[in-house]
Amino acid sequence: MEKQHPSYNLQKIDKDFQWVKRLSVLMDSRFRIGNFRFGLDPILNFIPFGGQIATFIISLVLVSVMYRNGASSKVAVKMLLNVTYDALLGSIPIIGNVFDFFNKANEKNVKLLREHYYDNKHQGSAKNILITLGIVIFITIILFIYAMYALTIWLFGLIF
To answer: Looking at residue 62, what is its pLDDT?
Structure first.
Protein backbone atom coordinates (compact mmCIF):
# COMPACT_ATOMS: atom_id res chain seq x y z
CA MET A 1 0.00 0.00 0.00
CA GLU A 2 1.54 3.31 -1.06
CA LYS A 3 1.29 6.39 1.15
CA GLN A 4 0.55 9.73 -0.43
CA HIS A 5 1.97 12.75 1.35
CA PRO A 6 0.69 16.29 0.86
CA SER A 7 3.40 18.59 -0.55
CA TYR A 8 3.98 20.36 2.78
CA ASN A 9 4.58 17.00 4.49
CA LEU A 10 6.99 15.96 1.73
CA GLN A 11 9.00 19.14 2.33
CA LYS A 12 9.11 18.39 6.07
CA ILE A 13 10.10 14.80 5.34
CA ASP A 14 12.92 16.00 3.04
CA LYS A 15 14.13 18.45 5.70
CA ASP A 16 14.02 15.87 8.50
CA PHE A 17 15.56 13.21 6.23
CA GLN A 18 18.53 15.51 5.59
CA TRP A 19 18.87 16.14 9.34
CA VAL A 20 18.76 12.39 10.04
CA LYS A 21 21.30 11.79 7.27
CA ARG A 22 23.73 14.39 8.69
CA LEU A 23 23.43 13.01 12.22
CA SER A 24 23.91 9.43 11.02
CA VAL A 25 27.10 10.47 9.18
CA LEU A 26 28.34 12.08 12.41
CA MET A 27 27.58 8.90 14.35
CA ASP A 28 28.90 6.38 11.79
CA SER A 29 31.40 7.85 9.31
CA ARG A 30 32.40 11.46 10.02
CA PHE A 31 36.10 10.80 10.67
CA ARG A 32 38.67 9.17 8.45
CA ILE A 33 42.00 7.47 8.97
CA GLY A 34 43.32 6.44 5.56
CA ASN A 35 40.42 4.78 3.76
CA PHE A 36 38.75 3.74 7.02
CA ARG A 37 35.76 5.82 8.11
CA PHE A 38 34.20 5.91 11.57
CA GLY A 39 32.01 8.19 13.63
CA LEU A 40 31.19 9.07 17.22
CA ASP A 41 29.42 5.75 17.87
CA PRO A 42 32.57 3.63 18.29
CA ILE A 43 34.38 6.45 20.10
CA LEU A 44 31.57 6.93 22.63
CA ASN A 45 31.48 3.16 23.15
CA PHE A 46 34.80 3.45 25.00
CA ILE A 47 32.88 5.17 27.83
CA PRO A 48 31.55 2.26 29.91
CA PHE A 49 27.74 2.00 29.89
CA GLY A 50 27.13 5.71 29.26
CA GLY A 51 28.57 5.77 25.75
CA GLN A 52 26.52 2.82 24.53
CA ILE A 53 23.38 4.21 26.15
CA ALA A 54 23.98 7.64 24.57
CA THR A 55 24.47 6.23 21.07
CA PHE A 56 21.41 3.99 21.47
CA ILE A 57 19.27 6.97 22.52
CA ILE A 58 20.53 9.07 19.59
CA SER A 59 19.71 6.23 17.19
CA LEU A 60 16.24 5.88 18.73
CA VAL A 61 15.65 9.61 18.24
CA LEU A 62 16.52 9.25 14.54
CA VAL A 63 14.05 6.39 14.16
CA SER A 64 11.30 8.24 16.04
CA VAL A 65 11.73 11.41 13.95
CA MET A 66 11.19 9.50 10.73
CA TYR A 67 8.36 7.39 12.16
CA ARG A 68 6.65 10.61 13.22
CA ASN A 69 7.01 11.78 9.60
CA GLY A 70 5.05 8.85 8.25
CA ALA A 71 7.58 6.05 7.91
CA SER A 72 5.69 2.77 7.75
CA SER A 73 5.70 0.43 10.71
CA LYS A 74 7.60 -2.07 8.57
CA VAL A 75 10.55 0.26 7.96
CA ALA A 76 10.44 1.52 11.55
CA VAL A 77 10.71 -2.03 12.92
CA LYS A 78 13.59 -2.81 10.54
CA MET A 79 15.34 0.34 11.75
CA LEU A 80 14.71 -0.55 15.40
CA LEU A 81 16.15 -4.02 14.80
CA ASN A 82 19.31 -2.44 13.30
CA VAL A 83 19.67 -0.12 16.29
CA THR A 84 19.00 -2.89 18.84
CA TYR A 85 21.44 -5.28 17.14
CA ASP A 86 24.07 -2.51 17.16
CA ALA A 87 23.45 -1.73 20.83
CA LEU A 88 23.46 -5.35 22.01
CA LEU A 89 26.60 -6.42 20.18
CA GLY A 90 28.28 -3.08 20.81
CA SER A 91 27.84 -3.53 24.56
CA ILE A 92 30.09 -6.60 24.69
CA PRO A 93 33.44 -5.50 26.15
CA ILE A 94 36.32 -5.27 23.63
CA ILE A 95 34.47 -7.21 20.90
CA GLY A 96 31.73 -4.57 20.97
CA ASN A 97 34.26 -1.78 20.56
CA VAL A 98 35.66 -3.42 17.42
CA PHE A 99 32.14 -4.24 16.19
CA ASP A 100 31.06 -0.59 16.48
CA PHE A 101 33.83 0.51 14.13
CA PHE A 102 32.46 -1.73 11.37
CA ASN A 103 28.69 -1.92 11.94
CA LYS A 104 27.04 1.30 10.86
CA ALA A 105 23.42 0.95 11.98
CA ASN A 106 22.48 4.59 11.36
CA GLU A 107 23.76 4.48 7.78
CA LYS A 108 21.79 1.26 7.22
CA ASN A 109 18.72 3.08 8.54
CA VAL A 110 19.27 6.05 6.21
CA LYS A 111 19.43 3.58 3.30
CA LEU A 112 16.15 1.99 4.47
CA LEU A 113 14.53 5.44 4.73
CA ARG A 114 15.73 6.49 1.28
CA GLU A 115 14.30 3.30 -0.18
CA HIS A 116 11.06 3.81 1.76
CA TYR A 117 10.44 7.47 0.92
CA TYR A 118 11.92 7.75 -2.56
CA ASP A 119 11.69 4.20 -4.01
CA ASN A 120 8.43 3.10 -2.27
CA LYS A 121 10.04 0.03 -0.70
CA HIS A 122 9.44 -1.32 2.81
CA GLN A 123 5.82 -0.17 2.79
CA GLY A 124 3.09 -1.72 4.87
CA SER A 125 2.72 -3.45 8.19
CA ALA A 126 5.44 -4.94 10.37
CA LYS A 127 3.13 -7.74 11.51
CA ASN A 128 5.07 -10.54 9.76
CA ILE A 129 8.42 -9.27 11.03
CA LEU A 130 7.10 -9.04 14.59
CA ILE A 131 5.52 -12.52 14.44
CA THR A 132 8.81 -14.00 13.17
CA LEU A 133 10.76 -12.14 15.85
CA GLY A 134 8.35 -13.38 18.52
CA ILE A 135 8.74 -16.99 17.36
CA VAL A 136 12.54 -16.70 17.34
CA ILE A 137 12.55 -15.18 20.85
CA PHE A 138 10.15 -17.88 22.11
CA ILE A 139 12.31 -20.70 20.68
CA THR A 140 15.44 -19.08 22.13
CA ILE A 141 13.85 -18.88 25.58
CA ILE A 142 12.74 -22.54 25.39
CA LEU A 143 16.25 -23.62 24.33
CA PHE A 144 17.78 -21.55 27.15
CA ILE A 145 15.44 -23.12 29.71
CA TYR A 146 16.26 -26.60 28.40
CA ALA A 147 20.01 -25.84 28.52
CA MET A 148 19.69 -24.67 32.15
CA TYR A 149 17.72 -27.83 33.00
CA ALA A 150 20.34 -30.06 31.31
CA LEU A 151 23.17 -28.19 33.07
CA THR A 152 21.42 -28.59 36.44
CA ILE A 153 20.94 -32.35 35.89
CA TRP A 154 24.59 -32.69 34.85
CA LEU A 155 25.84 -30.72 37.89
CA PHE A 156 23.68 -32.77 40.29
CA GLY A 157 25.12 -35.91 38.67
CA LEU A 158 28.64 -34.70 39.44
CA ILE A 159 27.82 -33.73 43.01
CA PHE A 160 25.74 -36.77 44.03
So the answer is: 87
